[in-house]
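Sanity check

After download, print the first record. It should look like this:
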Amino acid sequence: MIVGKSNSLTPGGDRAAAPGTAVAPGSAVARETAPAPPLSSSSRASVWIIAAGVFVVNLDLFIVNVAVPALGDAFHGSSLASLSWVLNAYAIVFAALLVVAGRLADRYGHRRGFLLGLAVFTAASALCAVAPGVGWLVAARALQAVGAAALMPTSLALLLVNTPAERRPRAIRSWAAIGGIAASLGPVVGGVLVEADWRWVFLVNVPVGVIGLLAGARLLPDARPHREGPFPDLVGAVLLTFAIAALALALVKADAWGWSSPGVLVPLFATAVLAMGFWMRSARHPAPVVELPMLRTRTFATATLAALLFTVAFAAMLLTSVLWCQQVWGYSAIRTGLAIAPGPLVVPVLAVLSGPVVRRLGAGRTAALGCLLFACGLAWWAVALGAAPHYASGFLPGMVVTGIGVGLALPTLVGAAAEALPPTRFATGSAVTTMARQTGSVLGVALMVTLLGAPDGPGEALDAFRHGWWAAAVTAVLAAFTALALHRPGTASPSV
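Expected structure tokens:
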């Protein structure tokens, strides 16, 4: 999640990758340089502060999913549609503010942006923990996303300031790996915390944030901000926020209200109007949320679209796996976390080992293979799972196969999108890809809420989950076909 001005955040043209993803083999980042002298003690301390902030933000994405059933129990009478906003409010605000926050940090200083983001994220986590109802929790989650949007892009910029040029490729990969580690630990950590009390899912961020703020105020470098350039497009960010929110509202309420009801049609119409306004605004503004010329780069646009579709399927898989284990099989939160953990654990391993596959098949075919394997894992669940718990022979194979699919597909798509752009557009391009993935996450959760609905009895619940898995599998197949376009001739693109 790298954002900034039109020039790269990485001095010397080094490239970076989004947290939780691997760097494309053969890229500038993947090439090691000569050994560098060891970091100073102050630089090492700064790196640990940055890593801690990035870790808690990424961990929060996964532990909250495990807490959804517990939130339903705590807030009696809350429907899945209402609880989905606990996930979606965060993703919507994060997606809309990512580029803007990065550009503001470029303007006023990365240290200031990081500390402000960490402070907002920490305070919002405390507000989440004391939430008396779902509405309060959703608002606090949106505030959390504001902090995360400020913290994530500035973290990489600060990391590079503390790292000699010779060590920057390794530092960037380490920064990217933090997301993978958080994803691997998230389900288990979330399960343990939820077993104690759902509020600990958010309280766990507070001591880390407070320590990071106290240490960061003393140790983080205060790089001189770059104040030149146009002010970022805040109006465009607001338009994007409400466009995604309106679409999510229409999807989550479609089952209860009906697709032809005014309550669904009006948000869909509002989505179209807001999206058109956002597009027109981006075309005219000197510092837009999305630089439209980048979308004329066919490889970048194709990889970003495939990543969006794949993330729809991934978000659907993650939510349904938690709900299935706890609501259908009656697993505890910690047992659910342990049941889900093999999938995330496979992802970083495959991401690291996928280099030979990418070199042999190319980015498009490798990503398509990952998408198809992911679809196969979902199809396996739709066919093999039933009301009686059969973890080893039913749930586990699907979780491992989907994990393999994620490890092959997502890092490859992110890398392909990045490699399609010149270094001067890499930072903003990576942010746009991350925005697309967050939007896909919103749509995946909303789609599952619509398909799962409020079933009457175990039989309808089983059918609803199977419909959800088949729908997610079809979306993953669409992502595979989109990814194959990366391998076709004629993908040369205009410079941006």
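If your output differs, re-run the checksum step. Summary of this record's structure: Residues 1-34, 489-495 have pLDDT under 50 and may be disordered.
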